[in-house]
Design a protein that fits this description.
By secondary structure, the chain is an alpha/beta fold. Helix content is 21%, strand content 29%.
């Protein structure tokens, strides 16, 4: 659902819109999945990357000028974008990475989301857009950004914030706003924790009803971290206010008095994938018979790198509620509520339940002959409540068992976060090891 003032938005209008995808943070809450890759490059559902979500939303919405901003571990992200997003030579479309760089004006890292835009302003201005959409690189949702731009143009807004209802506990982790009947935002607080402040930020049911939004017992209006700006407004705000480093903490709240800032109401599925636990939980939800997000929707395709992989080989396997990706080899193994990513290997007697096996970036070759433990999951190994990153070598008779009772832990081959055991990329787990 969207705000009530909606002009018809055509592709000609969207040609004047450019997208800025924010992915520059360290991704510490997703560690160790971000140990060797940037947050937008974290794998999703066995074959995608997190960055594929906003980029696919852009393409499906007619936005073809896109920059992705990053500064940590950007190699795999660069490689993925280069291999995936190639527009034809008659199109003006592109997806570029803007990595943090030293210049004559600045030599330090991005200090926040708004500071990232500030430091790359010379490149962003070259997009020659009339409007920008500013997007997060770690969320799972499907949005036609033409509806966002419709709200933005219909209200003649300087800035527009996509918003959705959330419950009280969730509200502590988001920017929470209050709006007038016009949907203009008059109060915005980033991650409110104080009880009295939370009480004051409750949105009455009748306000939700005014916008045809079913709150369902979620009385707070939260920012999705998805914004639309007039180009000249965003450029001026970040240039004139070097002390405003973050969109949610400073730029949006401090702009309410001087600029027209409106909310765009959204009621579809949306999940912030900011922690190992949220990443694991939403992944497990995708293995259910009725997943909350439909990757099969051919009207709104989620694009990713196309690989020439052989079909899945199943030999006497027992599989229930699972996602099995191309190139997998599963030998007399049991899989239940699990994801097995590209080129994943499960050997005889392996048992995987409520787990994510990210698979392998290559098939085993003669060059790997020096390894005593082959790629994949070894015989009679049992894995649950765990994530096994790319190219892991898990030996025979291993037990990896996560539990909410486990304390966070950091090791050379694996880590524990929020009760989830995460086996590192390229890790080697010897035969008979017990974790958890």
């Amino acid at each position: 659902m969207v705000s009530r003032l909606q002009p018809e938005i055509g592709l000609d209008t969207m040609k004047n819109v450019a997208a800025i995808v924010l992915g520059g943070g360290r991704g510490t809450r997703l560690y160790p999945l971000t140990k060797l890759r940037s947050k937008p490059a974290v794998p999703l559902c066995g074959r995608y990357r997190l960055v594929d979500i906003p980029l696919s939303n852009c393409i499906n919405s007619g936005i073809k000028k896109i920059v992705v901003m990053t500064q940590f571990n950007s190699h795999s992200l660069n490689r993925h974008l280069h291999n995936t997003y190639r527009f034809d030579e008659f199109s003006e479309g592109f997806v570029d990475v803007l990595a943090a760089e030293q210049t004559m004006e600045s030599g330090d890292w991005y200090q926040g989301t708004a500071d990232a835009v500030r430091k790359q302003l010379v490149h962003i201005r070259n997009l020659r857009a009339k409007h920008y959409v500013v997007l997060s690189g770690d969320q799972l949702y499907r949005m036609d950004y033409r509806t966002l731009i419709a709200t933005h143009l219909g209200q003649d807004a300087d800035a527009t914030v996509a918003a959705l209802p959330v419950g009280r506990e969730a509200a502590k982790g988001f920017g929470i706003m209050k709006v007038r009947k016009s949907s203009r935002i008059y109060e915005f607080v980033e991650k409110p924790k104080d009880k009295a402040l939370l009480d004051s930020l409750v949105t009455p049911d009748e306000v939700f009803r005014d916008f045809d939004v079913e709150a369902g017992g979620r009385p707070y209006l939260a920012s999705m971290g998805v914004y639309a700006f007039k180009a000249e407004v965003l450029e001026r705000l970040v240039a004139d206010h070097p002390e405003w480093n973050d969109f949610g903490k400073e730029l949006i709240p401090n702009s309410l008095g001087s600029h027209k800032v409106f909310a765009h109401m959204f009621t579809g599925f949306w999940e912030d994938i900011g922690t190992v636990r949220s990443y694991f939980d939403v992944s497990m939800a995708m293995t259910s018979p009725n997943p909350p997000f439909d990757f099969r929707d051919q009207q709104h395709i989620i694009y990713t790198h196309k690989r020439d992989l052989p079909g899945v080989q199943l030999h006497n396997a027992r599989i229930k509620n699972a996602l099995i990706c191309g190139g997998c080899l599963i030998e007399d193994a049991t899989i239940n509520e699990a994801i097995v990513g590209i080129r994943g290997i499960l050997r005889k007697g392996a048992h995987v339940q409520r787990a994510i096996i990210l698979g392998n970036e290559r098939f085993e070759t003669e060059d790997d002959s020096g390894h005593s433990i082959p790629l994949g999951i070894g015989r009679n190994t049992r894995i649950s409540e765990a994530i096994v990153d790319h190219n892991a070598r898990i030996g025979k008779n291993v037990i990896i068992r996560g539990s909410r009772k486990l304390a966070d832990y950091d090791g050379d081959q694996y880590a524990i976060r929020d009760g989830i055991v995460v086996v590192m990329k390229n890790a080697v787990i010897p035969d008979g090891t017990v974790i958890g």
